[in-house]
Amino acid sequence: MNRMIELDGEHLTLETFAKIVLHRAPVTLSDEAIQCMRLSREMVDRLIGENRTVYGITTGFGKLCDTVIAPEQSELLQLNLIRSHACGVGEPLSEEAVRGMMLLRANALAKGYSGVRPNVVKCLIEWLNLGLHPVVPAQGSLGASGDLTPLAHMILPLLGYGEVWVNGKREPAEAVWRTQGRSPLRLAAKEGLALINGTQMMTSLLALGLLRAKQLILAADIVGAMTVEALRGIPHAFHPLLHEVRGQIGQITTATNLRALLTDSAQVTQPDEIRVQDAYSLRCMPQVHGASKDAYHYVEGVVSRELNAATDNPLLFPKTGEAVSGGNFHGQPLALAADFLAIAMAELANISERRTERMVNPQLSGLPAFLTNQSGLHSGYMILQYVAASLVSENKGLCHPASVDSIPSSANQEDHVSMGATAARKLHQILDNVTRVLAVEYVCAGQALEFAKHRLGKGTWAAYRLLRQHIPPLVEDREGHRDIETAARLIQDGRLAEEVGKTVTILL
C-alpha cells in the first residue's frame, strides 16, 4: 500500500513526484504548510481591508493591471479570470501530465506565499487522490505568464465547469460534483490568479520527460555494448586512463558502464586483431552518451528546484508584510532545459542509428546481409534501419529550440515569452522517437548476436536473454513493427535496465 505523502512546498523530489503521479501515492498537506497558507491569506484580507492597490488582489490582470476592482466584485473577478483563460486547443494532455500539474500547483501553493486558503488546495489534492483529472487541452500556453491556459482548464472543474476524466471517460464537472453531493469551490480574492500563474504544465511535462530519459540513457549504454560485441568491436577505447585525463563526468561514467557490461566477453577483440580502430559510433560512445548524461543531470537540477518553486505573482511575504510583484512565472529556465534535454536525447538516437546501419550492412559488418541467412528471398531487418533513419531525421526538425522564439502578448505588456510549454511538449515526441530507434538497435543487435561464436559479456548476455524471452530469433521474414514495439516496451518500462542491473552495476 502506498504511504501518505505530505506536501510542504519544500521537499518534493523527482522520485516522490513519480510515486504520486505514476503510482498514485496519496497526498496530504503538512500542518506547517496549512499554517503558512493561513498567514498569507490573512495578509490578503488585510490588504483588501486597507484598500491598498496591489496587482491581482485589488486590480485586473495583465494589461488591465491599472483597473481597480471593488472588494464586492472579487469573487466574480476570480471566476471570470478562470473562465476567460480556459481557451486551450488541441488534444488533451495525458492523465499523468495533468496529475503532475495538480501536484505541482498544490505544492507551490503550500509554500504559503500565494494567499490561497488551505481548503482550496485541499480540494485540489482530494481530486488528485480520487483520480479525478481535469481535461486539459495541450496547446495554448506561451510559458511566460505561467501556463495560464492549461492551468485554467485544470482549475475550471473545481468551480463546476469544464470536463473531467472519470474512469477513462470525459464527464461534465457539474455531474462529478452532483455525484459527490457537494457544491463546487467559490474562489476569494487573489485565488484565481494564484491557481493559474505558474510553470506547472511545463514542469510536469519536463519531469515526466526526465523519468523517461533516464531509461533511455541506461538502455543506450546496454544496447550499444551489445552492438560492440555483434561487430567484434575493440573495448580498449573504453580504457579508464583515456577518459580520466579528459575529466568529463558523463564520459567517465559511460566508459565504466561499457567495461562492466562487456566483462568476461570473448566476443570483443583487441586492437589490430581484426582492425586497428572502430568507427566513431562504437569508439566514441563514452564521449557521445556521456555528454547526454551530463545534459540530463543539468536538467534534473533545474527541475528539482522548480518542483518546489513559488511561481505566481504577486508573492506575499507575511513576515515582512510585503507583496512583491515580479516574474517568477516566466518559464525561461525550463524552456532552455527542455530544449537542451531534447537535443541531448536526439543525439543518442543519432549515434544508435549509425550502429544499426553497421550491423545490417554486410560491407561494414562481416555478417549476413540484413542479418538473415537467406538474403534475397528474405529482407531480414533491412527496413528496420529505414525506420530508425526516418525517426532520426524527424527529430532533427523537432530539435529546433522553442526557447529561441518569443511573441508579445497582452497588448505588449507581456513582451517576452519563453515558449517553455512548446519545448516540453515536443520533448515527448522526441523521446517517443528515441525509444524506437534504440528498440531497433536492440532488436538488430540481438539478431546479430545469433551469429556470435564466442561468450558474451555479463551485462550483454543478460540483455540478450531478456530480449529472447519476448522476441524469437529471426528465421524468416515477419512483421517488424511487433519486434520494435516489444523491444521499446522493455526499454521504456525499465525492464531492460532492471534485468541487466541484477548482473552488473549500470550508472547514470
Automatic annotation (TrEMBL):
Q: Does the keyword Lyase apply?
A: yes
**What is one term from the GO cellular component aspect held by the record?**
cytoplasm
Q: What's a Gene Ontology MF term here?
A: histidine ammonia-lyase activity
**UniProt xrefs under PROSITE patterns:** PAL_HISTIDASE
Processing and modification events after translation: Contains an active site 4-methylidene-imidazol-5-one (MIO), which is formed autocatalytically by cyclization and dehydration of residues Ala-Ser-Gly.
Q: Tell me the InterPro entries matching this sequence.
A: Aromatic_Lyase, Fumarase/histidase_N, HutH, L-Aspartase-like, Phe/His_NH3-lyase_AS
Key words of the record: Cytoplasm, Histidine metabolism, Lyase
Looking up HAMAP family in the UniProt record yields:
His_ammonia_lyase
Family, according to the entry, reads as follows: Belongs to the PAL/histidase family.
Q: What is this protein called?
A: Histidine ammonia-lyase
